[in-house]
Amino acid sequence: MFRAFWIASLISNFGTWIHEVGAGWLMASLDSSPEMVAAVRTAMATPIVLLAIPAGVVADRVDRRQLLIITQLIMFATTATLATMTYTGVITSWMLLALTTVMGMALVLHVPTWQASIPELVPKHQMSRAVALGSISFNLARTAGPAVGGLLIATLGNWAPFVANALSFGGVLAVLIFWRREKTESSRGLSFRISLYQGVRYVARKSSMRNVMLGVAFFILPGSALWALLPLVAKQRLDWDANGFGLLVACVGGGALLASQTLYRLQSRFGSDRTVAGAMLVFAGGLFVMSQSTTGWVVAAATIVMGSGWMTTLTTLNATAQVTLPSQLRARGMSCYLTAMALSMSLGSFVWGQVAGWTDLSTAQSIAAATLVVTATISLRFKLGKSLV
């Protein structure tokens, strides 16, 4: 069953990255100010910040299969609406942000529920590898999806990536319909408030989980400068079209795929703590090179390096969280992890959009790279626990 989930996830991730290129390029076309382009990611992340932990409580109290089906239907309807409005030319920058927020609200239910379901499909001793395979699926899609998204925009128009994403939800729905679970969730007689309290208390008291949350913040707060400003790097600094932007995003995915080949060996040799800190420094180096260059191949090479650092850092942190959490609290714990990610991405995207608006792209990215060097050093003080391998 894990194979079917993995294939469906690959298709869905493929559609997501096509959508990402479409949304970023559409906003750059509607309003090219750094603040509004960065706001696309903020709009996606903000509902996750506000609602992820309550969503995790829901996922630990109701049947996860049914909840996943509902979220897929909501995302299909939202993406189809966005495609229609873009095709008819009635879309505005604020409408795009509103629909992106709805997508974020559906994702806030989907992601912790999906991640909490993975341990049902693989033995515990294979958890870290299952998480790595999930990351490979995500990055395979990130490698090819943006290029396809750029091609669709160039040949059909800004509406086409959203149609492709809407269609991608079909594979996930098919797997969920045929999935026959051996168990289902229940409230166990506890109130919603008590269930929420139990999950947050566990994360707060378990040192390895607290340090995972800190690691996410240390990395994503400065690292989000990549995603918040990448459309402007392509459009303004390199004078590239949507295909060029898609190429840069694909390079990030390619770097992540390269890193996936060495992740197991890195964790075996250096342990989780030094692997994360080293990957953060690698990412910082790539970001600094990007900030200083106006040459296309140099910027592309820097994005490959950053993709490697991004994948290594977040896969290690995610796998640590999955292995640490007990099954009855897994959705609540992963929702806390998701909240840390989304809060860091939302705040970071806002900050770097503002900094780029006050100064310029190069200065904003240089400051973010320097900040990442500092946070990587600090992260070594907060241990993740025993190695995953």
Q: Could you provide a short overview of the structure?
A:
The chain is an all-alpha fold. The protein has helices at residues 2-30, 34-59, 64-88, 93-117, 127-155, 160-178, 192-205, 207-223, 225-237, 242-260, 263-292, 296-324, 330-358, 361-379.
Strand content is under 5%
What is the H-and-E element order?
A: HHHHHHHHHHHHHH
Distance between the termini: 24 Å
Q: Would you report the number of β strands?
A: 0
Q: Report low-confidence residues grouped into runs of 5 or more.
A: none
* Continuous helix count: 14
Q: What Rg is obtained from the alpha carbons, in whole angstroms?
A: 20 Å
**Mean pLDDT across every amino acid position:** 84
Characterise the protein shown here.
Helix content is 83%, strand content 0%. Helix 3 runs antiparallel to helix 4, helix 5 packs antiparallel against helix 12 and helix 8 runs antiparallel to helix 12. The protein is globular, with a radius of gyration of 20 Å.
How are the SSEs placed, and which strands pair?
Layout: H1 2-30, H2 34-59, H3 64-88, H4 93-117, H5 127-155, H6 160-178, H7 192-205, H8 207-223, H9 225-237, H10 242-260, H11 263-292, H12 296-324, H13 330-358, H14 361-379
Helix pairs in contact: 1-5, 1-6, 2-4, 2-7, 2-9, 2-13, 3-4, 3-6, 4-13, 5-10, 5-12, 7-13, 8-12, 8-13, 8-14, 9-10, 9-13, 9-14, 10-12, 11-12, 11-14, 13-14
